[in-house]
Amino acid sequence: MALSFSKMNTKLNADLGLKPGLQPLASMDDSPVVSSAAPVSGSGDGELLDAYSRAVVKAADQVSHSVVNIEVRKQVKGREDARAGSGSGFIISPDGLVLTNSHVVHGADKIEVTLDDGRRPDAHLVGEDPETDLAVLRIYAPNLTAAKLGESKSLRVGQLAIAIGNPYGFQYTVTAGVVSALGRSLRANSGRLMDDIIQTDAALNPGNSGGPLVNSRGEVIGVNSAVILPAQGICFAIAIDTAKYVTGWLVKEGKIRRSYIGVGGQNVKIHRRVVRYHSLPVETGLLVVSVEPGSPAERAGLQVGDVIFEFDGQPVAGIDALHKLLTDSRIGIRTALGAIRHTEKLALAIVPAESQWREQ
To answer: What is the 3-class SS of 50-105, one letter each residue?
Structure first.
C-alpha cells in the first residue's frame, strides 16, 4: 500500500534520525526557499555549470539503459526463499552478459535481475572470481543495450567520474564526482590484495556494488565495489582493464586459475646480521606460521618458523609479493624457493598446485 506524503515524510525523518516536526525538505504545502543572493552576472560560471551538467546527463543517458538491479535469494532453514541482499550490475554484451561484484552474488541459490524497462529475465551465474571481487551473469532477453567499455590505464586524477546503481533499492541513482586517486590496493575476502583500484568521491552506498563507474563520454572505467563507511567521499572501483581480463577467463572457463603453495604466514623483519651474512635481496620476508597437510609446501620441506624471502628468483618481502608471483603459469612447474631456517639459508624446490578458493 502506498504511503501518504505525510506518512512518507515521517518515515524519512525516522530513517534520517530527525525528530518529529523537523523537515529535511520543504513539504508540498510550504513556500519555496528563495535565496536573497543576487543572480550571478555574466556567463562564465553559468556556462561551466551547464557544461558539467550536460556531461553528466549525457553520460548517464548513454549507460543507464545497461544498468540492472540484482536481487539475491538464499535458502534459509525454515524459510523457502529468503532475500539475502541486492546490488547492481551492467550489461556488457548484446547477448546478455552482465558484469557485477562477486560479493553481490556469491553463495546465491537464486539470482533475480531487473532491467531498466521492468523486465525480469532468467539469469544464471557464468562464473565468479572472489579474489578480484568480479562475477559474470548471463541473462536471456531480446533488445539488450550493452555499455561501452573504456580504458582505465589512461585515467587521470581529477577527471569526472559518474556512478550509476541502485543504492538501498533506489533504482538507477546517478552520483558524480572525480577520480580521487589511482593505483590503490584493497584486500579481497580471500585475503589477496587487489591492485589497480580506482578511488573516487562519487557517492556510493550499499546497493551500488557492481554498478558502473563511467567517464564523461559514457564509457565504463570501473566497477563500483567498496566504500569506507565512517568516511565521506572515499569510495573504490575495480579498474575496467582488470575487469576485461577477468571477464574473458570467466566466460571461457568459469573461473580464474591461480597457483598456491599451502602456507599461512605473516610479514616479519629479518635480522640485519642474517641479511648481511647471506646477502639477501630483502630485509623482510614471509614467516610461515602454518603448513597445510599434503600441500606443495609440505612436500617441498617447508616448516613452521621458516621465513620465505625468494620465489622463482624474485624477492619476497611479504605475503602480497608472494601472491603476485603465484599466477596460473606456475601451476605444476618446479620452482626455486629461498627460505631462512633459524640462521641457515635454504634452497628448496616447490611445485605450486592450482588454487581452489575457499570462503574465509
So the answer is: HHHHHHHHHHHHHHHCCEEEEEEEEEECCEEEEEEEEEEEEECCCCCEEEECHHHH
